[in-house]
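Title: Prediction job returns without error message
Component: structure pipeline
Severity: low
Priority: P3
Assignee: unassigned

Description:
Job completed but the reporter wants confirmation the result is attached to the right record. Sequence as submitted:
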Amino acid sequence: MNTISVGLLLEEHRGEIAATWRIAAGALGGEPALGFAVAPLLRELSLALREEGSGRTADAWARVAVLVRSSARPAQLVRETKLLQRSIWEAIAASGQPVTPQERVAVDGWILDALAECVDRLERVRQRLEALDRPAGEAGIPRAAPPPLPRGTRA
């Protein structure tokens, strides 16, 4: 499958896609979860599509996930990702360039895998914060107990 052309289209329309997404995400209200991550996500997606099989996608997802607002709710992140996906396809459709079903599957799959990485990171952050808030015994950490006293013999 050759996704180089879609990667180039994404690179060419990256600013337009990000601007369209920002408007749509702003309508959701609140601070966007992907606010800092959209531009790098589009850049990494573009590079991944142009460099098929390079193996850099796992690192790309991790780099994007770090930029997601850590206090975001997973549902908010999913909604914003849906808006980003829609912004991508609207920009490409407006360019008049044909996209094959295989190319669309590749783009959508990459975005969903990035979303999964972001949600997974949010869950790890949430678990760490909860562990810090709990007393030591409740966090699954055993309380320190003194060793048993040795049994003495009476003389």
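Comment from assignee: result matches the submitted record. The chain has a mean pLDDT of 87.
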